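tl;dr need the bound structure. longer version: we got a ligand (FE2/S2 (inorganic) cluster) that a collaborator sent over and nobodys looked at where it sits. i said id run it. heres the input, straight from their email, havent touched it
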Amino acid sequence: MGDQVKQDEVEIVGFACSFCSFKASEMAGSLRMKYPEGVKLIQVPCSSRVDPAFVIKALFDGADGVFVAGCHPGDCHFIKGNYFTRRKIAALKEMLDAFSMKNKLKLFWVSASEARRFIEKVETMYNEIKAEKDEGKKG
Ligand code: FES
């Protein structure tokens, strides 16, 4: 029974930079906006701090998806951090494509004031993965 519940759940690991995206998630909480329970958020100092190994480990440990959320280009508090992130995630997606897992990784930019955008991005990803998972069960 427990395994059945686990299979039905969508689990997403999200890395959010503390200056923008994580702040947006906190603002969303303050505004009583909700995102799906299966999303586990990890605060990082900058999106560039996310080592590709963190993403790979999360996916191979069973996460249905991983997202990295950072400051908008030009707004990174470490100047060029999110430009490094963009390149890193693009390379990682190419690698994941070899395992047909490219769509399990998303990168998006959310500023501290964009609580609604944060919720929309997370919900969209969650719903896409859930739909894929449900489709997989049918066929
Ligand atoms: S501090 Fe937010 S992406 Fe670098």
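gonna send this back to them w/ a short note. The pocket of FE2/S2 (inorganic) cluster is lined by residues 17, 19-20, 46-48, 70-71, 76-78, 81-82 (CB under 6 Å).
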